[in-house]
UniProtKB/TrEMBL annotation:
<keyword id="KW-0472">Membrane</keyword>
<feature type="transmembrane region" description="Helical">
    <location>
        <begin position="94"/>
        <end position="117"/>
    </location>
</feature>
<feature type="domain" description="DUF3566">
    <location>
        <begin position="19"/>
        <end position="132"/>
    </location>
</feature>
<feature type="transmembrane region" description="Helical">
    <location>
        <begin position="36"/>
        <end position="59"/>
    </location>
</feature>
<feature type="transmembrane region" description="Helical">
    <location>
        <begin position="71"/>
        <end position="88"/>
    </location>
</feature>
<dbReference type="InterPro" id="IPR021949">
    <property type="entry name" value="DUF3566_TM"/>
</dbReference>
<keyword id="KW-1133">Transmembrane helix</keyword>
<dbReference type="Pfam" id="PF12089">
    <property type="entry name" value="DUF3566"/>
</dbReference>
<protein>
    <submittedName>
        <fullName>DUF3566 domain-containing protein</fullName>
    </submittedName>
</protein>
<keyword id="KW-0812">Transmembrane</keyword>
Length: 134
């Protein structure tokens, strides 16, 4: 009786012919690039909001913000407090604004890169990519 492992061993010992294919990337679909850059920007926006939240929580837990507030109050003679400007709602609003601006910029940048690549292909002939089969 022959097992599956024996059959695979016999197949792997025989030489398979590998064929190489060389292709040129001569066009990037504009809307596909926009959709892909939008998805990447959404992921980056989520990471931005979560990381800003975590940094704020670490600063609160280590009482670093309270110490900075004491220093700020000492310099301003008690007229202005840092905690009136930096709270969780303000920090999360800032994170949301940064994430939304980042979303717009990365999406537009993906569209611009796709357009520039499509114009550049007319001059250079495209990107040569090689593939092989094992």
């Amino acid at each position: 009786m022959s097992t599956v492992a024996d059959k695979l061993a016999k197949k792997s010992s025989s030489k398979t012919s590998s064929k190489q294919v060389r292709l040129r990337l001569v066009y990037v679909d504009f809307w596909s690039a926009v959709k892909l850059s939008f998805l990447a920007a959404v992921a980056l926006a989520v990471v931005t909001v979560v990381s800003i939240f975590l940094v704020y929580m670490v600063l609160e837990a280590t009482t670093l913000l309270a110490k900075m507030d004491e220093l700020f109050v000492a310099f301003t003679d008690g007229t202005v407090s840092l905690t009136s400007f930096i709270g969780l709602p303000q920090v999360m609003a800032f994170a949301a604004i940064v994430a939304i601006l980042n979303l717009i910029v990365v999406t537009v940048l993906g569209a611009v890169v796709a357009g520039i690549y499509n114009l550049m292909v007319k001059i250079t002939g495209g990107l040569l990519v090689g593939f092989t089969s094992n």
